[in-house]
Amino acid sequence: MTTYELKEFFEQLYDRAFYAKVYLQHIRMFETNFRKYPEEMDCSPKFYNVVYSALMKSLVIEVAKIFDNENSKRKSLCIKHLLSVCENEVGSGKLIPEIREFRYTEDGPLQMYPYRKVVEDPSEKLLKNCFGDFKIIESLAKDGNYYIWVGGTDYYRYLKEKYNSFSKQIDYLREQRNKIYAHTDLNVKKEIDNFIQHNPLELSDLEGLINYTFEICNFVSQGVSNTFYCDTDYYSDWENTLAHVRAGKQYKIENLEEFVKIMI
After folding, report:
1. Is the pLDDT of residue 141 over 70?
2. Please, which of 17, 149, 156, 167 could form a disulfide with 114 given CB 3.0 to 4.6 Å?
3. How far is it, in rounded angstroms, from Cα 118 to Cα 82?
4. CA nearest 126: which of 141, 144, 148, 142?
5. CA neighbor of 161 nearest in space, from 116, 206, 129
6. In terms of pLDDT, which residue wins out, 249 or 32?
């Protein structure tokens, strides 16, 4: 695999993860917006039921594509295949070097840096197992996140073990995708509650898988192009619509009261 092919690979996975996160954020907005705008959302309950259902299906199917099984007969655009590629391409003199080398300017001195990793929980056991006694980079902690410097081989080992830790969630995801969202299994349809009880999948599980996708894409991106993606948040303007509906309802009430006064 060439540098260009690897770059194209992780960018497509990153895009899928981005849209999956957008679906997830909108699903969570339903609860928030319903608390703030219950009457406004009650104006179109059937519409919102359809939107919520569509978002859930899109979220599950999109994340399931990212965590699909690797197919030996075709090149699968999935995390498992990316991990397989990384296994052969991480190390000195390879596409994803042990230590990154780059110049800030064309004629500037050659700089050498390890990989930057975001740390959500410094007490995570897997971190110590893979990186030993790491130190937080104080100069990069200004945005509220913790960062550490790590080597390419150790980072790949961490990502591989992290993937293995998601094995149950990935199995549940594939089962729900195959028997509920992508296909209709009549036996499952008859006992849907029992099926979900044995294959539970929370929004937090899907969020963990999405965030993992961002991390492995960031790892590969740093290796092949020295680029670190910082922000994956998406701004939604849905609340603007609900605020306008509220203003319209208030306007209607005020004008109706004025009309009644005139008639009397």
Report:
1. no
2. 149
3. 20
4. 148
5. 129
6. 32
Q: Are 9 and 96 in contact (CB under 8 A)?
A: no
Structure tokens at 221: 């991106």
Please state the pTM of the whole predicted model.
0.87
The string of DSSP codes covering 45-102 is HHHHHHHHHHHHHHHHHHHHHHTPPP-TTS---SHHHHHHHHHHHBSTTSSB-SSEEE
pLDDT tens, residue by residue, 51-72: 999 999 999 999 999 999 876 5
Q: Which residues are 116's β-sheet partners?
A: 149
Pairing of strands 100-102, 111-113: antiparallel
Closest CA to 94 of 221, 2, 202, 28: 2
Rounded Cα distance between 228 and 223, Å, is 10
244 contacts: CB under 8 Å, gap ≥ 6: none
The H-or-E segment that residue 155 falls in is helix 152-165
Least confident of 92-96, 118-122, 197-201, 231-235: 231-235
pLDDT at 47 over 90: yes
Q: How far is CA 122 from CA 117, 147, 205, 213, 236, in A?
A: 11, 10, 20, 20, 31
State both tokens at 193: 């509650």
Flag whether pLDDT at 232 surpasses 70: no
